What does this fold into?
Amino acid sequence: MRARVCAIVAALGLAALPACAQAEDGAAFWKKVQATCTAAAAKPPGELGRRIAQSAIDEFSRFGGHQIDANGRIFRFGLTEAEHTEDDVGEPRAQLGQLGWWLVMKYWRSLFGADAPDKVEVRGYRDAAGSTQDEQSAEVLRSSAGELIRAADKVADPEVREMLREAALRGAILDTPWSAAFISYVIKQAGVGDNAFRFSNAHRAYIYDAFAASAAELKNEAGSRLYRACPLTTTRPRPGDMICQQREPTLVDLSDAAARERIREELASGTDTRSIRRTHCEVVAHVDAGARKVYTIGGNVNQAVTARKLNLRGRGLTFSAAQKGQCGSAGHWTLPQPAAGAPHAAAHPQACSLNDRKWFVLLQVR
It folds into this structure.
């Protein structure tokens, strides 16, 4: 409707309404950005992009996490954040690199150094440890792993002290989202410096920075920023790029184009507004052009470092918005419903593909 009104205004030779000018600015902006993205995507990935992809592949292999196929189903369930590699022979020693929580703390330490335990949150629930009533409500308690570790340090027995310290770290790993810390670790391992990437425990920091780079490029002012923001379904991914999704509960009906335009408008306003805050990104690790598939690797995906296989489309091998998967017939899920009045009744599953997410932007290595 707004486009039709703007067309009438233009045809009558009237002064443009603010909403019309904004729409035209957005369309012109993304047309120019798309041209830059398309030209870059036509070139082979550079050395830095290949290093980022290899860094992600190496860490996925080291973690031994899940694998998700193009239908969005886990076909290999790997190590998770709170587990360790199973040892059936009862060996008294373990390799630290086989401990899921230790690997995740490595990502946090890469981001925050020695202060990492104070940056991760541990949650408790008042009196929950001794309660046996499942319907009882409990006040949420919050602390940091660092605070609990300092309390544990007062315990005299060295073995008990160490177990309490590790329990605090494991609890924090479970309670604090770490997917952005994983991305920051991978990028840093590839040799990228602070001048090129916004290392952060929140994906939105470098998502918004990539949008700012796209705007700055139009003025030849992007500097050394690593990523630009590109339209998702019209830009061919390359190793080292990232794909990102938005998970805002109030924006479930927002299209990918509208989400991108919202971020552009917020940055153009010069304010601190950041309405798309709940996000998740994964590194493009490999593009199988012949099979029209792309492999991405992300952290904290089903509590693990996970590799997923996604669909590409057309001769341009751009990202397919249809990542629905094949779930079978309408009767593929026949588990009976819970008894009437049963607490915590699970809703009937609406989607069976773990790849069916609100992906909305490609961050392209510049």
Notes: The two ends are 36 Å apart (CA to CA). The chain has ten helices and eleven strands.
